[in-house]
Amino acid sequence: MNCKNAADRIYEIDDPALKEPGILRRFSLALHILFCSRCAVRLEHYEEARFLLGTSFFPPSPDFESALMSRICSEEEAGQIFDTPGGFSTKGWVIVGLIVLLSLSSLFFGKDFASVALDQGSSFLLPLGITIGIFLTGYGALFIGSHLKELSERFKL
Description:
By secondary structure, the protein is mostly helical. The chain folds into two domains: about 5-55, no CATH class; about 85-155. The chain has helices at about 5-10, 25-35, 35-55, 65-80, 90-105, 110-120, 125-145, 150-155.
């Protein structure tokens, strides 16, 4: 028997799809493993891997689902499910938005901007305007999305 046949027979031992190998096949495999150290090491590694795959890698974790669901239910009953502690208030968002708007609009009044605009021409203004527009639109969308309940109550929508 060669090493390839021995390796195939090692894997056949645990395969339920294959019929049970006969006693002669088991004996020839055991005889080959007795004289071939490579196949003996391969069988040992296979048995270790089979043992490791049969055991659990991770210890059982505590039941997280029931604790989480009970907390969600208690917050729903208290009416606090949509309240988010911390973060910016509406006033904070507006102040930051105004600072961003003023800083972006003051960009056009700088000395460096005038020299770059003269060198590049009007082709420089279009990408700059699109970038500023995308940034302000994104900021506005984040503000509205994060304060949707508050804004709908205020404007009775």
